[in-house]
């Protein structure tokens, strides 16, 4: 019977001459063993499934994805926002983040300089070097106009015989400096009494340190404000997500430098108050 069916199917195909007329063959059944068990969930011989395409509109744009790829992969604590670290090369056409960082670094450097020059308990002739005097040629450091010497631990003398015409202006500059000095003028000689290091004097210096710190923080805010203003002017052709990410980076930089200012203030206050 099987031979007859085989001959009949072969003759039928030969007479039709078309592969499409052939019915699909019945699956072969092995008589040498039990039928193959197919595990639940699909054919075990099937290839890997293709990943499902992301829904339209989901996920960041390629450029933004690169920005996000630079995020620090740290597990954030409860209530703590994840920090970002933008690749500056990807946004250099939008904003100069390196320039912003340099400006903020300059603010911190100036604060350290103010602390060392104006808030020292130990007095030396070099303590007056930062004071500038108004002259007809502009502002000139006082140590370029007069010879400064230390007569005693409580007295500094500025000899203005080289530029006697600048004596009054030099005394005024000393009086208006942040060192709270009260100079006395005798001809071309300026005597500068140094306040004794009392508890009150230490506390006044600590208050002055606080003023310097607040001024530095204000300068930081100005740098941040300038950067954000420039960023918003560059919105054309830049996605809102990118703008927000860059703005977050700028704020993060501001917070970091503000924390550095607080550390400098705490260290200086401890040094002054003892």
What does this protein look like?
By secondary structure, the protein is an alpha+beta fold. Helices cover 46% and strands 10% of the residues. Among the domains are: 88-98 and 199-273, Topoisomerase I, Chain A, domain 4, CATH 1.10.132; 123-193, Gyrase A, domain 2 (2-Layer Sandwich), CATH 3.30.1360. It is built from seven helices and six strands. Helix 4 (97-118) runs antiparallel to helix 6 (199-233), helix 4 runs parallel beside helix 7 (240-273) and helix 6 packs antiparallel against helix 7. The longest helix is centred in the C-terminal third of the chain and has 35 residues, at 199-233. It is elongated.
Mean pLDDT metric:
76
Structural class: alpha+beta
Distance between the termini: 114 Å
Main sheet summary: 4 strands, antiparallel
Query: Low-confidence runs (pLDDT<50, min 5 residues)?
Result: 1-23, 25-34, 38-65, 68-76
Strand order of the largest sheet: 3-4-6-5
Rg over CA atoms = 40 Å
Following the backbone from N to C, one meets helices and strands in this order, namely HHHHEEEEHEEHH
CATH topology annotation of the domain at 88-98 and 199-273: Topoisomerase I, Chain A, domain 4
Helical fraction equals 40-55%
Please tally the β strands and state the result: 6
| Mass-distribution shape | elongated
The CATH architecture of the domain at 88-98 and 199-273 can be given as Orthogonal Bundle
Figure out the total of helices. Answer: 7
> How large is the share of residues in beta strands?
5-15%
Task: Provide the CATH top-level class of the domain at 88-98 and 199-273.
Answer: Mainly Alpha
């Amino acid at each position: 019977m099987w031979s007859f069916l085989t001959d009949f199917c072969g003759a039928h195909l030969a007479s039709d001459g078309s592969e499409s007329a052939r019915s699909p063959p019945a699956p072969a059944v092995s008589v040498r063993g039990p039928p193959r068990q197919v595990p639940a969930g699909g054919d075990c011989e099937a290839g890997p499934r293709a990943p499902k395409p992301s829904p339209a509109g989901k996920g960041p744009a390629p450029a933004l994805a690169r920005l996000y790829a630079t995020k620090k992969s740290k597990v954030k604590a409860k209530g703590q926002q994840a920090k970002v670290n933008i690749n500056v090369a990807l946004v250099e056409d939008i904003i100069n983040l390196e320039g912003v960082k340099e400006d903020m670094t300059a603010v911190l450097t100036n604060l350290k300089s103010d602390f060392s020059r104006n808030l020292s308990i130990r007095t030396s002739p070099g303590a007056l070097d930062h004071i500038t005097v108004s002259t007809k040629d502009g502002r000139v450091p006082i140590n370029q106009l007069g010879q400064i010497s230390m007569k005693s631990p409580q007295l500094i003398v500025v000899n203005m015989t080289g530029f006697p015409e600048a004596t009054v202006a030099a005394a005024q500059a000393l009086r208006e400096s942040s060192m709270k000095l009260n100079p006395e003028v005798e001809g071309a000689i300026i005597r500068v009494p140094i306040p004794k290091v009392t508890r009150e004097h230490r506390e006044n210096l600590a208050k002055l340190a606080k003023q310097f710190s607040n001024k530095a923080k204000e300068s930081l805010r100005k740098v941040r404000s300038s950067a954000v203003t420039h960023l918003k002017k560059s919105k054309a052709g830049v996605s809102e997500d990118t703008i927000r990410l860059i703005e977050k980076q700028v704020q993060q930089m501001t917070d970091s430098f503000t924390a550095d200012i607080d550390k400098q203030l705490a260290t200086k206050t401890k040094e002054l108050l003892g």
